[in-house]
């Protein structure tokens, strides 16, 4: 019975192992698994196959990239660090350049102690990129991360920053205390859990205030009151030698730091005889007067009297209302007196059912329009439509 029990246990273990392998989804085939799709090579990470109507075609990703076989309907190559090539470790021969081990990808500096810089390579051309303050380049993700997340031997926090977090008692309330950078007023250190230092900085124009543990204006920190003075003095002193364009960020930082921004120089403008505005002419200069000449003043014309708008009295009864609904025509008369100037553009005239305003001396009555020919009404009598009524029989 012991031997049979052992055989059964071994059989179960073998079946479980086979099921595990099958669940892993690793399949090998020398033909197209499906008539159409994209499928990874079994041993080479940057090689794949394209199947169209059961026709197999071998393809290769660009150097420095690997095939992503997540979706067989999508043809996609990603950077090598983004693909798990554990089961397909082989790659095509590298096509290295001066700073790029391969044609494409993100690669660290040759100096292993240079942790915060790396090269981004595209088609063999390398571009130097620097990580933000206190971050290092990660070989796993190709991005800038905190030193403890990168896991690089020569890139620990203690080796990157020249600062050691002070030992504090267990009763310290602050979990991540801040300390001023002893060499630079703009920066400070945050000790994560009181042990791991991370260097941070204030905005341009501010310094770190140890009393408030926050960024503040330089005038509020006596030991850093003149931190930006030399920089702003040199900037504004050499402004005239440059293109003359002033940076808004520098002005804002100077004002925030309390620096007295110098006044701009007087602007110079050129006047030429043709320096006139379009559509205007220069006024003629007044002639010179002799000692015996006199000046005659012409009185200004009197202000035009305000026009009084007349309204006819509202008649009573329906007869009067019907009469006023139609506007009567006036007879145009010709006089030798010139017409007065027209009313201003904003002088509108409104009419209603009972009143209207008119200026017969200004507006000539328009001739009555010629009536359009009308079709005479038919002489025949209109057709009568019989009205059908339901017949209701009386009940007997």
Automatic annotation (TrEMBL):
It comes from the Eukaryota. Gene3D superfamilies: Chitin binding domain. Residues 385-396 have a biased composition (Basic residues). Residues 347-367 have a biased composition (Low complexity). GO terms for cellular component: extracellular region. One of its GO terms (molecular function) is chitin binding. Residues 1-25 form the signal peptide. InterPro entries: Chitin-bd_dom, Chitin-bd_dom_sf, Chitin_bind-dev_reg. PROSITE patterns: CHIT_BIND_II. Keywords: Chitin-binding, Disulfide bond, Glycoprotein, Repeat, Signal. Residues 266-396 are annotated as: Disordered. Residues 29-87, 97-157, 162-226 form the Chitin-binding type-2 domain. It holds the Pfam family CBM_14. PANTHER family: BCDNA.GH02976 (PTHR23301:SF104), CHITIN BINDING PERITROPHIN-A (PTHR23301). This is Chitin binding. It comes from Halocaridina rubra (Hawaiian red shrimp).
């Amino acid at each position: 019975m012991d031997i049979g029990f052992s055989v059964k246990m071994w059989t179960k273990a073998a079946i479980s192992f086979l099921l595990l392998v099958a669940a892993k989804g690793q399949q090998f085939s020398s033909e197209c698994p499906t008539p159409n799709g994209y499928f990874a090579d079994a041993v080479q990470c940057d090689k794949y196959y394209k199947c169209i109507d059961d026709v197999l075609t071998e393809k290769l990703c660009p150097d420095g990239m690997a095939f992503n076989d997540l979706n067989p309907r999508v043809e996609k190559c990603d950077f090598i660090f983004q693909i798990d090539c554990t089961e397909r470790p082989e790659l095509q021969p590298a096509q290295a350049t001066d700073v790029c081990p391969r044609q494409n990808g993100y690669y660290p500096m040759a100096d292993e102690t240079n942790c915060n810089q790396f090269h981004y390579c595209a088609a063999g051309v390398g571009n130097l990129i620097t990580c933000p303050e206190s971050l290092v380049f990660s070989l796993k993700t190709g991005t800038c991360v905190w030193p403890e997340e990168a896991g690089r031997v020569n890139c620990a926090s203690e080796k990157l920053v020249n600062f050691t977090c002070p030992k504090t008692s267990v009763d310290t309330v602050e979990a991540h205390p801040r300390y001023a950078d002893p060499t630079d007023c703009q920066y400070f250190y945050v000790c994560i859990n009181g042990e791991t230092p991370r260097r941070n900085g204030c905005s341009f124009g501010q310094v770190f205030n140890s009393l408030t543990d926050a960024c503040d204006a330089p005038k509020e920190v006596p030991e850093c009151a003149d931190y930006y003075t030399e920089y702003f003095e040199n900037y504004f002193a050499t402004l005239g030698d440059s293109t003359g364009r002033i940076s808004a960020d520098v002005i804002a930082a100077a004002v925030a730091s309390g620096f007295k921004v110098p006044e701009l120089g007087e602007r110079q403008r050129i006047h030429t005889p043709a320096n006139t505005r379009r559509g205007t002419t220069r006024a003629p200069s007044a002639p010179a007067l002799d000692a015996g000449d006199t000046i005659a003043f012409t009185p200004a014309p009197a202000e035009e009297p305000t026009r009084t708008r007349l309204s006819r009295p509202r008649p009573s009864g329906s007869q009067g209302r019907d009469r006023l609904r139609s506007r009567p025509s006036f007879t145009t008369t010709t006089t030798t007196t010139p017409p007065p100037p027209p009313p201003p553009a904003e002088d509108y005239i409104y009419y209603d059912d009972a009143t209207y305003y008119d200026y017969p001396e200004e507006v000539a009555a328009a001739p009555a329009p010629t009536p359009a020919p009308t079709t005479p009404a038919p002489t025949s009598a209109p057709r009568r439509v019989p009205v059908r009524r339901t017949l209701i029989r009386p009940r007997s």
